[in-house]
Amino acid sequence: MKRLRFLxxxxxxxxxxxxxxxxxxxxPAKPIRLIVPFPAAGATDLFxxxxxxKMGERLGASLVIDNxxxxxxxxxxxxxxxxxxxxxxxxxxxxxxxxxxxxxxxLPYDAVHDFTPISHVGDAPSIMVVPNTAPANSVKEWIAYxxxxxxxxxxxxxxxxxxxxxxxxxFMKMTGVKLAHIPYKGSAPAVTAILGGEIDALFxxxxxxxxxxxxxxxxxxxxSGLQRAVLLPEVPTISESGVPGYEVNVWFGMQVAAATxxxxxxxxxxxxxxxxxxxxxxxxxxxQGVEVVASTPEQFSKLVQSEVLKWTQLVQDxxxxxx
Length: 323
Fold this sequence. Notes:
This protein is of the alpha/beta class.
């Protein structure tokens, strides 16, 4: 009897494996939707369109960008989490949607358990900028300046709970400086505020401030990642400038709904990892301030989980509340 049950179990397992393999071979048989949980024409959208074009070429199917902005990326991410687990709906997940969002409050999805990771695809460091009139030309000098002026300085962000908001919160935690937070509705007004001397510091993505830095309209004093930014190699990292261990990267990665068949996940991973090695892809991403990072699904899963823990701890320590 035991032998019969064993043989029946083996037969079912073989049938399931054959079905999954057949499914992967037949997939994709129609266009694939790539949900971008941010507005069209933004930095994340431009990055996604480069990725979609290359993925479509490799998969032999069109990838249709579907911008679903709102709630810090939660609206689009929730749609992806609830999509059929058949590989025809992908999500470009980010630090905001899967690391910072979960740390700030209840989301309509579980950032870890409602998705199957495919691959980490890129990291984008931020640049700490200050007005060109600031009496500091480095992170060390700026920290000293802030300590000499307690309660007098402020910083801007692209909104409460944004990655650049929490980047500065981490900076304050690690340096002991105290700054007032002034949130803006996006990068453009925050950059305008720096140019006008309305705020004393700002973290922002490299492409958003590159021209103003090159034109001498603001000072770039530190890079948030552990490696210098390719577009601004002369600017040292914050970690090498007196705040050892400081690291913030906005990461991007591809995900699908949980329970998507593993053969489809593996096929997507192979194709994404391959295209991320193409020189023109590396260049196009770097031009957008993004460094290519490929991974296995398991490595990407560990990144998401570790980032959730990191930002949750910071939010708790800093007693951050988002209304």
